[in-house]
């Protein structure tokens, strides 16, 4: 899994300087047993300083990716069953237009926006360029607590 680093602007004496946030292990408040028991073996948590992170168990491993699809910013796992991503072959697909992302790396996989209908007048899709989602290294301690490196 890749480790995401983000830069943020920090005001300094009237100028703006860029500072890189240091990654740290952040507790998700979810245990391995809790994730296994969850519907679709999936939980979305709001991690301090990171935002909504989707935890997914797949093939006996735990993955963590951003819950926000980079296409239109919709949730991969929303609050209703209609907005619920599908997982297949190590990738998670957005419920809106079907763009899929590798659970390990966050990279876009396959056709971008395959479910987006073509515009009748123009006859083509407007869906932008394939874009990765943030993915986070996961560790599970001896008590089963899931932490992400973010
Ligand atoms: S919002 Fe996710 S593919 Fe369009």
UniProtKB/TrEMBL annotation:
InterPro entries: Rieske_2Fe-2S, Rieske_2Fe-2S_sf. Residues 1-28 are annotated as: Disordered. GO terms for molecular function: 2 iron, 2 sulfur cluster binding; metal ion binding. Pfam families: Rieske (PF00355). SUPFAM superfamilies: ISP domain. Residues 1-26 have a biased composition (Low complexity). Gene3D superfamilies: Rieske [2Fe-2S] iron-sulphur domain. Keywords: 2Fe-2S, Iron, Iron-sulfur, Metal-binding. It comes from the Eukaryota. Residues 32-133 form the Rieske domain. This is Rieske domain-containing protein.
């Amino acid at each position: 899994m890749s480790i995401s680093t983000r830069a943020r602007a920090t005001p300094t004496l009237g100028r703006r300087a860029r500072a890189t946030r240091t990654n740290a292990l952040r507790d998700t408040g979810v245990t391995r047993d809790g994730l296994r028991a969850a519907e679709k073996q999936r939980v979305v948590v709001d991690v301090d300083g990171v935002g909504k992170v989707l935890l997914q168990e797949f093939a006996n491993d735990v993955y963590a990716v951003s819950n926000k699809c980079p296409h239109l910013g919709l949730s991969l796992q929303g609050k209703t069953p209609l907005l619920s991503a599908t997982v297949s072959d190590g990738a998670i697909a957005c419920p809106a237009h079907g763009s899929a992302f590798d659970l390990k790396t966050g990279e876009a996989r396959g056709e971008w926006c395959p479910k987006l209908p073509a515009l009748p007048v123009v006859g083509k899709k407007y869906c932008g360029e394939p874009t990765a989602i943030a993915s986070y290294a996961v560790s599970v301690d001896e008590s089963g607590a899931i932490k992400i490196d973010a």
